[in-house]
Amino acid sequence: MSDTDLLAQRFEAQRPRLRAVAHRMLGSTAEADDAVQDTWLRLSRTDVDAIDNLPGWLTTTVGRVCLDRLRSGSSRHEQAADVTGEEPPTEVPGGRDPEQEALLAESVGRALEVVLTTLGPTERLVFVLHDMFAVSFEEIAPVVDRSSTAVRQIASRARRRVQTRSADPRTDPVRQRRVVDAFLAASREGRFDDLVTLLDPYVVLRADATAVRMGGMGELRGSSPVADFFNGRAQGALPAFVDGMAGAVVVRDGRIALALSFTVTDQILGIEVVADPDQLAALDLVVDGLEEVAG
After folding, report:
1. What is the domain extent for residue 197?
2. Whether residues 121 and 265 fall in one domain
3. What whole-number distance in Å separates Cα of residue 242 and Cα of residue 180?
4. Backbone angles phi, psi at 75, to 5 degrees
5. How far apart are CA 60 and CA 3, in angstroms?
């Protein structure tokens, strides 16, 4: 097999995910397919050996392609006819039964309509990549030419707007709170199988350098490794909302030492751990019903 054929094979393995990102950005199956094709053309002109993480590179690149289309006005995203039409599949091993698929398609259609009609191009990209596909703020920052702190603030603003407008139970903060609370309880009680069930098979755990020095992991991927890491560890975690997302904090010596935010749809897609004092100070934290700004 030639290098080109091998690259094409690797790209095809990522196509469903890329198409799902593009569809959520543009609201049109045809536009999504065009954006994915543009992403392939960019990849074919790139030195692949210099790409450390091909799935991550492709996800952020298709996001950049979509953002360019939205900003140039070339996308027909204002046409809402396709919003509740075909939804490209995401990578969910094992699938769902037909009834579950129908319910999911309906809820995704409602959520997508809210995203398309409520958010501007930059907010839309940040929300889709981070909240729907667990891409880190650091990876999104160069795509939108902002600092990671600014991207976090954009995500928080976008999330509040979507939650205000959306009737989709998957974006309901109360439901997200229940999922995260169940995860924290399973962690405290050492229920490994329950942790795996609550985590998406492709879940990503990311922690900053300060959290790593405190005993965390810089990055873990997959439900089993992440469940193994958290098994029995959440003894001191307190439920919280972190930038409007269901999360948790760890308090030491009267100060917040760690903040964990969770990206939740039907399962937990991503977990971000922040311990750097400057980053903590930039977070909006609500703990036990009382708003506290860390720092």
Report:
1. 173-293
2. no
3. 12
4. -75, 145
5. 23
